[in-house]
Amino acid sequence: MPKMKTKRAAAKRFKKTGTGKIKRRHAFKNHLLEGKTSKRKRRLSGSAIVHSGDVKRIKDLISYM
User: Fold this and answer.
1) Distance of alpha carbon 32 from alpha carbon 17, whole angstroms
2) pTM of this prediction?
3) Which residues share a beta bridge with 22?
């Protein structure tokens, strides 16, 4: 059986941390920023950890990362 390919779209969006968790960016931070408060934009600028229910699916997409 051939090796699985890493899905490049997912590889650009997710990174693994040193402890094996999967890190992601927040949505809603690209455009239409004038109507959002500074507090909201600041909170969205950091990274987040992928929810536990989605981890298995994401790990299959970025299997060799």
Assistant:
1) 30
2) 0.83
3) 16
